[in-house]
Amino acid sequence: MHFLNANNGWAVGDNGTDTRATIIHWDGTQWTRVSAPVGRLTSVYMVSANDGWAVGQVASGGLSLIIHWDGLTWDVVGTVPIPSSMQVTLRSVFMVASLDGWIAGDRGLILHYGPEIVPGTTTSMTTVIQTTTSTLTQPTSSTTSTTNSTSTTNSTTTTTSIPPSPIPGFPTESILAGLLAGLIALTVIRRRRKL
Is 89 helix (H, G, I), strand (E, B) or coil? Predict the structure, then answer.
């Protein structure tokens, strides 16, 4: 459940009777059911009245589910392509800003949503040429003095780019880090069970 204010709140869940998730909206007077995708939802976070996220799991197939509110409808953003041993329910979503947020799921899966970080050095190329001319004439003599000065500044730009992620907004590195953390957690759990 997440409220933006006393007149705008959202709650998500699983109604238990069919394969559709439950999404309800509070308008300050009453709760109204909103159309939802197939699946179960566990967490919702609203950035604004026109920007919200909810996570859970697709009812059939067990894939992780991420949906987005654009002010009109909730649309499926993507199902995270993870190995069958890691098909997990996403449990919590928290947005720091509209383009920066975190999702946590079962088995240690953690995803980061945000702009991709481009490795490499970045500088700007700038060339500035400044010329100043001044003339000074003495009123009591016929002496004239002229001064000229020029300064130049140069720098270079180098940028390295990386290929786009298969899931919009989720850098490949964060998906891989989440999968690795989940696999490590599974290994630890299995070893503890054997003891």
Answer: coil
Looking at the predicted structure, is the pLDDT value of residue 143 above 80?
A: no
**Cα 13 to chain centroid, rounded:** 23
Neighbours of 163 (CB within 10 A): 7
Q: How far apart are CA 53 and CA 77, in angstroms?
A: 9
Q: Are the beta carbons of 55 and 45 closer than 8 angstroms?
A: no
Question: What is d(CA 54, CA 93) in angstroms, rounded to the nearest whole number?
Answer: 7
d(CA 7, CA 26): 7
Widest Cα–Cα separation across the chain:
104
Helices (H) then strands (E): counts for the chain: 1, 13
Tokens of 105: 């799921």
Query: Whole-prediction pTM value?
Result: 0.58
For residues 147 and 136, give the distance between their C-alpha atoms in angstroms, rounded to a whole number: 9
Strand partners, 79: none
Model pLDDT, residue 61: 66
14 alpha-carbon distance from chain centroid? 26
* Residues near 41 by beta carbon (within 8 Å), at least 6 away in sequence: 12, 13, 14, 21, 22, 23, 54, 55, 56, 65, 67
